[in-house]
């Protein structure tokens, strides 16, 4: 078995000397090895009749890219991160080189890798190491990247597209995917992540903002997704940070449930969390700053825990920090700090809760026109109001030291305990 070396992948692909019909060192023999000095990539020469080769030289020699033990590089397949070369075929071939339904590691080497069509994981549970690279879409399509396997991991990769291109960045289906240090900077995606029946997936340490001028698009759009988590994100400049749609699973009929968001910062979202239909929503230790219409608003579903968050409005005079519709029931809202922000918002509301059986406990309302509005099945316990504008408007029980430092309005039908210190 012989080994031949070339200066680079570019030189290898351009080579016309090595040939199946050659002689001596110029003869390509199936099973022999070819290496490149730049990049240290290794290849096995395929049989002349092979149809599953990874790359082919200008002289017609077919080659398989070898796994070096640390995985494979997209550049071994001819990809170039120069922001100009179309790498669609090279990157897709690299992904497809791993066993179907198998695992492996694929790395980018830095730079901007253009693609002109959708790249898909095609059932492979691979780890993609971006190493700070950008994947950049240059033509309109539905998605730039489709993750449709089990246990895909994507790390340290930026999502970009050319001006005028229309698409969503990533379509996520399947189970147990992990996205870490993924970035998207002002690319005006339709959705950054469109998740469809995604289960047990996790996002962490991602920086995702979409449209600093128009605040369009969704960062996460969820269709019948189950038990997914998000932690330590910076995101915003969008219409919705999280959008749980009413789309039901086509066979089993369930919608999104088990949505857990923690330790994240959402800025300039018209709606931070929009739950048109969501069950088991948990949002904790997050900052919702410069909100538009709503921080969190859920229309249909049940069971929420909204705890220890900070909410501030921007310029929308009808800003609602946390709202639920009449068809959303059961939950706890506790330990949140709610303010209208630096602008006087005449019709702003802290909590507007039309649904039933919500425990409202230990929240602080500062300088916001409307404090708490609930129905008769909910409980208001130990909330504090300050700044000259807060109020409780409710037919529910108002009890156990709801503190008021300013005039409060209690609607007829409200009941309150004598140990609730109220100042009028």
Question: How is this structure best described in words?
Answer:
The protein is mainly beta and 424 residues long. It starts with a strand and ends in an 8-residue tail after the last strand. Helix content is 4%, strand content 51%. The chain is built from two helices and 40 strands. The chain is elongated. Mean pLDDT is 91; it is low at 404-424. An eleven-stranded parallel beta barrel has the order 13-15-18-21-23-25-27-24-22-19-16. Strands 1-2-3-5-4 form a five-stranded mixed β-sheet.
Radius of gyration (CA) equals 28 Å
Query: Which class do the helix and strand fractions yield?
Result: mainly beta
Mean pLDDT: 91
- The number of helical runs is 2
Largest sheet: 11 strands, parallel, barrel
- Strand numbers in spatial order across the main sheet: 13-15-18-21-23-25-27-24-22-19-16
Strand segment count: 40
How much helicity do the residues have?
under 10%
Strand content: over 45%
Distance linking N and C termini: 93 Å
Q: Globular, elongated, flat, extended or rod-shaped: what is the shape?
A: elongated
> Unreliable segments (pLDDT under 50, ≥5 consecutive)?
404-424
